[in-house]
Amino acid sequence: GGGTSTLDVYKSDENMEIRTGRGLYSGGVFSTGYGTNYLSNPKFQMVTYQLKPYPSNPPTIYPTTSPTLPAPTPFSLGSSTYDSSGNTGMGGIMFDIKALNDVEINQLTWQFNGGYGGSYTYACYKKTALGAHTDTDMFDSSKWTLIASGSATNIWNSGAVTSPFSVEVPSGEVQAFYIHGISRGIISQYGGGTSTLDVYKSDENMEIRTGRGLYSGGVFSTGY
Q1: Comparing C-alpha atoms, which of 126, 95, 99 is closest to residue 189?
Q2: Which one of 41, 45, 171, 188 is separated from 35 by 20 to 30 angstroms, measured CA to CA?
Q3: Beta carbons of 153 and 118 less than 8 angstroms apart
Q4: Does this model's pTM top 0.70?
């Protein structure tokens, strides 16, 4: 008694209609018997369903696999080329980087003080909290986090490179770094600027600011 036509709606809600069906003979799957006589009008009990969040204008073909995202393009800022003019030896250097876009910093390059072709130990830190290094925290090891250490080969005209790390710096923020030569001191050039706010190198993504040299007496040593 569901209706007189297979177009008759037996149940409905705001999302679908269940129409009156037709009974098939019990002699087996797809058995005839009742033929096209739908006067018995069976009522199917229940349909469980969920709404799919398809777009209003779905594409003709849905992808069968997730798209492969391209690897991020690596950038380099600054130069590792040796410059003999105006160099000075020191134990380590602290400096600040300001992000002009969201960036992830992965490695630092520097020059050990001579000993080219040899391998020497180093330690590299970031200031734990975002912000520039200051007079009060530059000698306080509790304010810093070790991000890379070990040995690095000092190569003529390309310098030494830290092991890879990951430090994310949001756009507009400043992150302080500190690298110190353990078994051999490092070198840097004079004349970077008169303030740690002076920009030494920059591109569209970040600024490298003039740093401060630390004494060779050990990590976080005073002296300079």
Answers
A1: 95
A2: 45
A3: yes
A4: no
